[in-house]
Specification:
The structure holds 2 protein chains of 2 kinds.
Chain A (H helix, E strand, L loop, with lengths): L1 E6 L3 H8 L4 E8 L2 E6 L24 E8 L2 E3 L7 E6 L1 H15 L5 H9 E6 L9 H4 L10 E5 L3 E6 L2 H6 L8 E2 L2 H15 L11 H7 L5 H8 L5 H5 L6 E8 L4 E8 L20 H20 L9 H5 L6 H8 L7 H4 L6
Parallel strand pairs in A: 2-6, 6-7, 7-8
Antiparallel strand pairs in A: 1-9, 1-10, 2-3, 4-5, 4-12, 8-9, 11-12
Chain B lengths: L4 E6 L5 H7 L2 H10 L1 E5 L12 E7 L2 E3 H13 E7 H6 L8 H12 L10 E5 L9 E3 L6 H12 L11 H7 L24 H4 L16 H10 L4 H28 L1
Parallel strand pairs in B: 1-2, 1-3, 3-5, 5-7
Antiparallel strand pairs in B: 4-6
Helix pairs in contact in B: 9-10
The chains are: A alpha+beta, B alpha/beta.
Chain lengths: 348, 260
């Protein structure tokens, strides 16, 4: 992997230079949170850790028209604009790699592939907060899945080049690049030590696939199901959730049919409902069990890693505190302060 | 193919759903072109009530005997009956009070029992309490886009099914901060989507005007709100605006049992 550096004061012109590839998007503050928006580089917030919605939105939008048909002919007008997305942390890039596997291996998804081709990923290092646990999921550093990756070393950024496209994009910003030296690498090594020591949230994911499998009949799922609002937030904010639904409609004004595709959630009641009205997972507990089994067991056996990258979004998003940390702790019989654990709701 | 014959009717309600159909200004000519409109009093006083209908759209709740008679007539002549708007689908804000409570409210407003002579009032109910309903479009009022979607499918001979997932999904698609997490009484998790999460996108918490999703977990949300320090009264008030009296009564009982 090639390595350069740029001076800190050159970050904004550097990003402006990359705009030669396409629209520039990055994290900007929204209330107490962050969102990826198209903005000027000086408006990006480098302290942003997790955006409300992850970068998966750049690869398959939350809702879009996948095709239109009329008189036995169909056309697909999905043409994503070329974009530079800046500020993606290692957990986010690992999630994109999971997304990539899912959408390319068995049935390559044409919409995903078009977005992928139109997107330049520029990663950024980070210092964890109390919700980050990428250390436990093995996703705190990243070697692939980005075009460029910037590590913040105070007065300079190291610029790692992760792809031929990343290499090409450097032509746009050549004048800011300097060769990295031995001293830069030593500074990086000590930065890594400091960063690795700063994780506050400790969680043990060892043996999780087996623990989840053996907990199939545990009463914990029912307790969780009684507390779950089925709002679907966990799946919308999860960077590795891929489920979607399709809906056909007739546009009476243009006299054509269109097929919309939108993010869907396995915690919704109709998710496992089939023609005739039978529902394979009528109970909320069954649906939650599916989500956690998929993340921590199913994905593991299919792709060799859990479908969780420790970003902490479920932790900060679930109104009743059902998230990877609290569920793993509950399944391990460890103490947990999550709201759902103390909720006494009997409704099933 | 002959144009489908339709009628658009209003029972007791604010007529806001019919108005929103008229508000589809860019599509209105197309709607009038695709369908043969036999009755739409808000748009034209020229009606043909003798004709049979392929589709009847009905807004408003059944709140009087006249409503009930009209509804039965509409049902008789329509192949497909579609309830539009919260009043027709769930009974509306007026269904907040039922039976016993309703009589009390009635006397409070009208003074005595037989004050209204034009028609006999009834406790407000959704139209499905009296006749078979083939499709629904909730909302207070209905939204233009979902209405056009529904009308389009009906024009193609498809009986539309309103999806059943909460406002939170649309809210997250719009990348909003969660108002429930910010400590507000937001009914997003319990409320059916379709509105596009308009209110939470403007930082106003959901009051449930699209009606509850199937198998909503109101117990959990009530518990959560109680935990956040809201009073039983505040929670019950918010839930009962569009949730009807039955749910409000269950909720009250549940919350009082938690108070111990």
């Amino acid at each position: 992997m090639r390595l350069f550096k740029i001076k800190k004061q050159n970050l904004i012109p550097f990003l402006r230079g990359l705009e030669g590839f396409g629209e520039l998007w990055g994290p900007v503050k929204k209330g107490n949170n962050f969102v990826y928006v198209r903005a000027k580089p000086e408006d990006f917030d480098l302290t942003a850790l997790r955006t409300i919605i992850p970068a998966k939105k750049f690869f398959l939008p939350s809702k879009f028209t996948s095709l239109k048909f009329r008189d036995n002919r169909w056309e697909d007008n999905y043409r994503p604009r070329k974009r530079v997305i800046f500020g993606l942390h290692p957990c986010e890039i690992h999630a994109l790699n999971i997304y990539h596997k899912f959408y390319t291996r068995l049935y390559p998804d044409p919409y995903y592939l078009r977005s992928k081709a139109a997107t330049l990923v520029v990663g950024l290092s980070c210092i964890p907060d109390e919700h980050c646990f990428c250390y436990a999921t093995g996703t705190s550093t990243v070697n692939e899945g980005f075009d460029l990756f910037l590590t913040d070393l105070g007065d300079r950024f190291l610029v790692w080049v992760g792809s031929p496209r990343g290499e090409d994009s450097l032509k746009l910003v050549e004048k800011f690049l300097e060769e990295a030296t031995q001293e830069d690498i030593s500074r990086y090594v000590s930065w890594r030590k400091k960063r690795d020591a700063s994780f506050k949230l400790k969680v043990d994911l060892d043996g999780m696939p087996e623990i989840v499998s053996f907990s199939y009949d545990s009463p914990i799922w029912e307790k969780m199901g009684n507390a779950c609002l089925s709002c679907g937030t966990c799946t919308m904010v999860c960077p590795t959730c891929t489920c979607f639904d399709l809906e056909d409609e007739y546009d009476l004004k243009r006299d054509e049919m269109k097929r919309d595709r939108f993010w869907y959630s396995c915690v919704f009641r109709e998710y496992s409902m089939v023609a005739g009205g039978h529902n394979f997972r009528e109970a909320r507990s069954e649906r939650l069990k599916l989500w956690y089994t998929h993340k921590l067991v199913g994905f593991m056996s299919e792709y060799g890693s859990p479908a969780c990258t420790g970003c902490g979004r479920c932790e900060v998003s679930c109104p009743v505190g059902i998230n990877v940390i609290s569920v793993v702790r509950a399944l391990r019989n460890e103490r947990s302060t999550a709201l759902w654990v103390k909720m006494e709701v009997e409704n099933a | 193919m002959a144009k489908p014959k339709i009628g658009i009717y209003g029972l007791t309600g604010c007529a806001g759903d019919q108005l929103n159909i008229l508000n589809c200004e860019d599509e209105l000519l197309k709607i009038f072109d695709i369908f043969e409109i036999k009755s739409f009093v808000m748009a034209s006083s020229a009606t043909d009530e003798e004709s049979s209908l392929d589709v009847a759209f009905v807004e408003g709740s059944v709140s009087t005997e006249k409503d009930l008679e009209d509804l039965k007539e509409i049902r008789k002549k329509a192949k497909i009956l579609v309830a539009i708007g919260h009043c027709a689908v769930y009974g509306g804000v007026q269904a907040m009070f039922m039976d016993r409570e309703w009589e009390k409210m009635y006397r409070k407003v009208y003074g005595k029992k037989n004050a209204v002579t034009l028609t006999k009032p009834l406790p407000p109910k959704p139209i499905a309490s009296y006749v078979k309903v083939d499709a629904v479009l909730p909302g207070c009022p209905i939204e233009k886009e979902p209405f056009l979607k529904l009308a389009g499918l009906l024009a193609k001979g498809v009986i539309p099914r309103h999806p059943d997932f909460p406002v939170c999904a649309e809210c997250k698609w719009k990348e909003n901060e969660c108002l429930l997490l910010k400590g507000e009484i937001c009914l997003g998790p319990l409320t059916n989507s379709g509105c596009g999460a308009i209110c939470p996108s403007l930082n106003v918490s959901c009051i449930g005007c699209w009606g509850p999703i199937e198998k909503e977990n109101w117990e959990a949300e009530a518990f959560l709100l109680k935990e956040r320090g809201f009073s039983t009264e505040d929670i019950v008030k918010r839930f009962s605006i569009f949730g009807g009296q039955e749910r409000a009564e269950k909720l009250k009982k549940y919350l009082e049992s938690k108070e111990g």
